[in-house]
Design brief:
The structure holds two protein chains of two kinds.
Chain A: H1 2-10, E1 14-30, H2 33-42, H3 45-52, H4 67-75, H5 79-86, H6 96-113, E2 126-142, H7 145-154, H8 157-170, H9 178-185, H10 190-197, H11 206-225
Antiparallel strand pairs in A: 1-2
Helix pairs in contact in A: 2-6, 3-6, 4-5, 7-11, 9-10
Chain B: H1 11-23, E1 28-33, H2 40-54, E2 58-63, H3 68-81, H4 90-106, E3 113-117, E4 135-139, H5 149-159, E5 164-167, E6 179-182, H6 199-209, E7 217-221, H7 230-241, E8 247-252, H8 259-272, E9 278-282, H9 288-297, E10 300-303, H10 313-319, E11 324-327, H11 332-335, E12 343-345, H12 348-360, H13 362-379, H14 382-397, E13 403-405
Helix pairs in contact in B: 1-14, 3-4, 6-9, 7-12, 12-13
Chain lengths: ~230, ~400
């Protein structure tokens, strides 16, 4: 028992953090697809990151998975383009620049078939924003799976976003999130880490990501308590 | 004081407010607007300033004073900035500047951060004390996406001298040579407009206002103004009535400062005719508990506007877990995620169809009401707005960084 406590103290705890964004307008807007193309090529990485990667921070999956696809589908009513833009997965691409290249490729291809884009009505333009991100610890730590399970229910969606989505871009590895990284490298539970990594970030809202992680962890916590060997 | 919001506002927002206040402790934060009472800005400042003081920030709120000519001018420019044509002369602009110049003698403009609300006190930037390092931000609460060009050009000259400008919606932002931020407005979940009410409180309001609760209640709370489309709401109700039993309640305040208000009210009354299931109520503007109770007893809440600023009545309804239907204008589509937190509509027929959908699918209505409340919790509560103002101030101090670790 004492040995167990000593071991637990040596374990580097998982410190939950959260990201809050302040939205900054770039002052740039596009009223049709040609203008959108020009500005996608011009704006800073922060703006592309905001409109594609931070889309999941909205907390619910709509028909599309980034602001460009949403605008193409709902405002321009170019559904085919919207479907293609929505398939751009920022987490399999290694950088914001590659996301930009993919966006441009899809828009260029569409424009080559339909070279005369129509204007949207004033007020429905695409407004390019970017964010300043404030990151702070939320005062919650986990030293083992059971504590992690309690924490995952307690934290705000913004914390899940930071560790599950933002980490993929921050760590530059695309498929690795903070949770599975800690579980594999600190708790040495690769099997659990693999299961978390198998959750497709692209197909879920933050709420359902929380549910999936809770389900996985709960199953292993129960098994640990019951002494089931895996 | 901030602990009053525990369990109501997102934990992260409260934590970040506390963390930012500890970083900014002892610093001064001055707000300036043109009215101590009435309107959303005064409502928020009344709550926010004591809350910040309690967290160690030397927060102050100053109000500029002006004569009737000044306020007549600012009312005109307010309309002109929102797209109405107004006749504004050069001498009016001179008077506007002179009133602000006079005010600087009675106002203490020394502060580490200064937030000037709306166009009325905008020229105060010319009297910014040079003796201290400070951040001056101009906060625009109105929709200036389609202003009279000449009026905006004059105002822009002042706004461009600030360190940054803050708008409620991306679409309202203008091309400016300063940093521009987007901070959406908010509702206070603890105010009498929005706090939880007991069943007894709700029943006593129903009794007082003689509201029949036997039938589903369709409600719209808004001024009697053509842009709020009260006639359209009655038309939608008439379509619904062919299929479903319901009561329509239209609530507004007597229009003391709006000459058109009375004309619109008469039109609405005439159009409603003698239908006993249409109730048109005029309540004094400070009857917050009554409005709160009406929203809580409603089955469905509409905001079928044809033109709107942000339309915070939508968030107020969503906070009460009500299924909502809103016109696709102003800030309404930001609050209503179509099909998830409510329905956005473009016509009378659309409004009628969605009312019928809600009436025939109470479970769906309940689910959307619940999603709406969570959406407001995460996006449109006062604590989020306080968090954003403090974050902006801190971002100015950390100038140039896109990621700030606290």
């Amino acid at each position: 028992m004492r040995k167990g406590i000593a071991l637990e103290e040596e374990i580097e705890p998982f410190e939950f953090r959260q990201c809050v964004s302040v939205v900054k307008s770039t002052g740039k807007k596009a009223k049709n697809l040609k203008e959108l193309r020009k500005l996608v090529a011009q704006v800073g990485d922060e703006s592309i990151f905001h409109h594609v990667c931070q889309y999941f921070l909205k907390g619910h999956i709509l028909e599309y998975t980034n602001d460009f696809a949403q605008w193409a589908g709902e405002t321009l009513e170019e559904r085919a383009l919207a479907e293609r833009l929505t398939c751009i997965d920022p987490y399999t691409l290694k950088s914001v620049e590659s996301v930009r290249i993919e966006l441009l490729r899809e828009v260029d291809d569409f424009l080559s078939h339909f070279p005369e884009p129509h204007d949207v009505i004033p007020g429905n333009e695409f407004y390019f924003n970017e964010t300043i991100n404030l990151i702070f610890p939320i005062g919650v730590q986990a030293r083992n799976l059971a504590e992690f399970l309690v924490a995952i229910d307690h934290i705000d969606p913004g914390s899940i976003y930071y560790h599950f989505y933002d980490a993929r871009v921050r760590l530059g590895e695309g498929i690795v999130d903070d949770f599975s990284r800690w579980i594999e490298h600190t708790l040495m539970r690769k099997e659990i880490a693999d299961r978390i990594r198998a959750i497709d970030p692209f197909m879920h809202s933050i709420v359902s990501i929380r549910e999936h992680i809770r389900e996985i962890i709960e199953k292993y916590v129960r098994a640990d308590m019951e002494g089931v060997t895996r | 004081m901030i602990t009053q919001y525990s369990g109501i506002a997102p934990k992260g927002d409260l934590l970040l407010i506390q963390r930012l206040c500890s970083k900014l402790e002892g610093k001064s934060f001055l707000h300036v607007n043109s009215t101590r009472e009435g309107g959303g800005v005064a409502e928020i400042l009344n709550r926010m300033v004591p809350l910040l003081r309690n967290l160690g920030i030397d927060a102050r709120w100053e109000v500029i004073e002006g004569d009737a000519t000044f306020f007549d001018f600012t009312k005109k420019t307010h309309n002109a900035l929102q797209g109405t044509r107004e006749k504004i002369t050069e001498s009016m602009w001179d008077h506007y500047y002179e009133v602000n110049k006079r005010n600087r003698k009675s106002l203490d403009l020394n502060a580490d951060a200064v937030l000037i609300h709306d166009p009325q006190p905008a020229p105060l930037i010319d009297f910014r004390p040079r003796s201290r390092m400070s951040v001056w931000m101009w906060r625009c609460h109105i929709d200036i996406s389609n202003p009279m060009p000449g009026v905006w050009a004059k105002l822009k000259a002042y706004v461009s001298r600030y360190d940054s400008a803050i708008f409620s919606v991306s679409r309202f932002a203008k091309s400016l040579p300063v940093d521009e931020y987007i901070v959406t407005p908010s509702i206070d979940p603890l105010s009498s407009k929005n706090r939880d009410l007991t069943q007894q409180e709700i029943s006593s309001v129903a009794e007082k206002l003689q509201i029949n609760r036997d039938k589903p209640i369709i409600l719209q709370v808004s001024r009697f103004d053509r842009f709020k489309d009260p006639i359209g709401v009655i038309n939608a109700y008439k379509i619904v009535k062919k299929y479903n039993e319901c009561t329509l309640v239209l609530v507004g305040s007597p229009a003391t400062d709006d000459p058109e208000g009375e004309a619109v009210l008469n039109e609405v009354r005439e159009f409603a005719g003698s239908d006993p299931d249409i109730r048109i109520l005029l309540l004094p503007p400070d009857n917050h508990i009554e409005i709160n109770a009406l929203q809580r007893m409603a089955t469905i809440i509409l905001q079928k506007s044809l033109k709107e600023g942000f339309g915070l009545t939508v968030s107020e309804a969503m906070w009460k877990e009500k299924p909502v239907i809103g016109g696709a204008v102003g800030g309404i589509p930001l609050q209503i995620v179509h099909g998830i937190t409510g329905f956005v509509v473009y016509s009378v027929e659309g409004a009628a169809f969605r009312i019928r959908q809600y009436l025939n699918n109470p479970l769906m209505a309940q689910r959307m009401g619940q999603s709406g409340k969570e959406y407001v919790r995460n996006n449109y509560l006062l604590t989020r707005q306080i968090r954003d103002y403090l974050s902006l101030w801190y971002c100015h101090i950390q100038k140039g960084k896109h990621v700030i670790e606290l």
